[in-house]
Write a structure and sequence with these properties.
This protein is of the alpha+beta class and 296 residues long. It has 4 helices and 16 strands. The longest helix is centred in the middle third of the chain and has 42 residues. It starts with a helix and ends with a strand.
């Protein structure tokens, strides 16, 4: 359902020098731009670079974005760099980057081996990388320990919510089946029930949204949830990173909203389903909490 464009980026050949903001070519012939040079020293061997990345199509539409937070990419700078076909584009770029630096690379689609169907009709895709911070091994270890402790605390808090969520899902699903639940319906057949309104404008295509969810089959069987993992799920809305029912349903909500989405199988996993957890032609139910919206 979701293609990882990061894998494409890692396969590209890229070298970039420290120079004034300009557009030039890599030794491989790809165009890149240093939008902002950044400040401070370049990362040293074995140091860790934290960065965000945005990947856009040739029409400017965002295909994938990884921002600051639990999903932010981190790369360790090696002592030796691979060359030729095994060269790692991101590592080479980050090795000469500075904190605050912003870099853009235009990658022709026909230069990408085994380009996925999602992008084959495009002429090129654009990568934008922003370097956020650099940590040595000691600071990185401390950071990871803090992150793990924070996630464990969040997981424990969310685990405490699960019994109440299970009861809420059971009651709401029974009301839905009996016709007691006053849902709204979109033209596509998606039905939804807003349990709690949030604040501000609704999420829109291209926004990065962060969602906690609890998903079941129509008989109430749970097949997946984010609460037990202690980590909400971020994705870019409206670009096909999730099932159609999510792209449409989450766009009906604003920050802080809590809702139920009743998704017909055609907007979920289709006639085939997603065995073994989701049988063929399965309509799905999701309890969702929209925690955050960015990019509005």
């Amino acid at each position: 359902m979701k293609f990882n464009f990061i894998a494409i980026l890692f396969a590209c050949t890229l070298f970039i020098c420290s120079c004034k903001p300009s557009e030039t070519k890599t030794p491989s012939g790809y165009h890149y731009t240093i939008v902002t040079e950044g400040t401070g020293e370049k990362p040293k061997t074995n140091e860790y670079v934290f960065f965000t990345i945005k990947i856009s199509g040739d029409d400017g539409k965002v295909l994938q974005e990884m921002k600051e937070g639990p999903q932010m990419p981190i790369i360790q700078i090696p002592a030796e760099f691979k060359t030729g076909k095994e060269a790692n584009a991101v590592i080479e770029l980050l090795a000469v980057s500075k904190v605050g630096g912003v870099y853009k690379l235009i990658m022709p689609v026909d230069s990408i081996p085994n380009a996925p169907m999602d992008i084959q009709s495009m002429k090129h895709i654009e990568y934008e990388i922003t370097v956020k911070q650099i940590k040595n091994e000691e600071d990185y270890k401390k950071y990871m320990e803090e992150q793990q402790a924070e996630q464990q605390a969040k997981m424990s808090a969310n685990m405490e919510k699960i019994p109440a969520i299970e009861e809420l899902v059971k009651t709401t699903l029974n009301d839905f089946k009996s016709g007691k639940l006053e849902t709204k319906k979109t033209d596509s057949g998606l039905k939804y029930y807003i349990l709690k309104e949030g604040e501000g404008s609704n999420a829109a295509s291209g926004n990065t949204v962060t969602v906690n969810y609890y998903g079941t089959l129509m008989d109430g069987t749970r097949f997946d949830d984010s609460f037990s993992r202690g980590q909400s799920f971020p994705f870019t809305l409206g670009v096909g990173q999730v099932i159609k029912g999510w792209d449409e349903g989450v766009a009906l909500l604003n920050k802080g909203a809590k809702a139920f989405l009743f998704i017909p199988y055609a907007m979920a996993y289709g006639e085939a389903g997603s065995p073994p957890t989701i049988p063929a032609k399965s309509d799905l139910v999701f309890y969702v909490e929209l925690e955050d919206i960015s990019g509005q």
